[in-house]
Write a structure and sequence with these properties.
disordered N terminus; four-stranded antiparallel beta sheet
């Protein structure tokens, strides 16, 4: 049977996207395609606009020009109600986890199911929360508060919450930031596990290249407002682009390099 056009549509498609924040051009002609079931890591130095890129995809930041298609719908032409409907198909893991301090772990994970009309009973919500917490290795923590959790535990709860409403797309903002190498490895493995277990498409922005090579199917590098390179993790490490190689070697890139050269 021939596939429908919707089956061939990328989950996310950005074409020549320009975005200004407070008169600063952050994204300057970004092109990126993310297909169903992919894990794409967007890497680059801190402050380069990676988080802004995620917010553009989530419809949280407007763009000045270009196309931002998510699930086949161009967010630049959608009403706020239409964008809200699209967001219901997304999960978002914020950099610090962004758990509600006054809610227990279970209440945090259940929160997306309380704010949208899922039609689930309280018992069904509790069962889903337990299943998700088990999946991220946080079983038995339902009644704890965020202040009782380590940084890595909070990140895992945040991932469970992002998956609660069964999204098709999950966006991660620096998921291993501030974690020790062991816990970073746990989160990296969890990102891939969540794709394999729940079938979600994932976009992860990170400055941690070693993490990206561990979970990503494809790595894209953001530099000076553009995606300057895309490749599989193995291919990315050997790309000849000098900026990519500076990043791979952990050397200063861009304006910082010029500043150091003047010292």
């Amino acid at each position: 049977m021939q596939a429908n056009r919707s089956d061939l549509e990328p989950v996310v498609l950005l074409e020549d996207v320009q975005c200004r924040l407070r008169d600063k051009l952050v994204l300057d002609g970004v092109n990126l395609q993310v297909n169903e079931g992919e894990i794409v890591a967007v890497v680059g130095v801190s402050g380069i606009g990676k988080s802004t890129l995620l917010k553009v995809i989530a419809g949280l930041v407007p763009v000045q020009s270009g196309v931002v298609k998510v699930f086949g719908c161009d967010l630049t032409k959608c009403s706020e109600d239409e964008i809200n409907q699209i967001r219901q198909k997304m999960g978002f893991v914020f950099q610090g986890g962004a758990l509600f301090d006054w809610m227990t772990v279970a209440e945090n994970v259940a929160f997306p199911l309380r704010v949208i009309d899922t039609g689930l009973s309280d018992e069904e919500i509790s069962e889903r929360v337990k299943r998700l917490l088990d999946a991220v290795g946080m079983e038995g923590t339902e009644n704890l508060l965020p202040e009782q959790l380590s940084g890595g535990m909070r990140k895992r709860v945040a991932i469970a919450r992002a998956l609660a409403a069964e999204p098709r797309l999950v966006l991660y903002d620096e998921p291993t930031s501030g974690l020790d190498p062991v816990m970073s490895g746990v989160i990296n493995d969890l990102i891939r596990q969540m794709r394999d277990e729940f079938g979600v498409t994932e976009i992860v922005v990170t400055h941690d290249l070693s993490s990206a090579t561990r979970f990503a199917d494809r790595i894209a590098m953001l530099h000076n407002g553009k995606i300057i390179a895309e490749a599989s993790p193995k291919e990315f490490l050997s790309l000849s682009n000098p900026v990519v190689q500076q990043f791979v070697r952990g050397e200063a890139v861009g304006p910082l390099t010029e500043f150091i050269d003047r010292l």
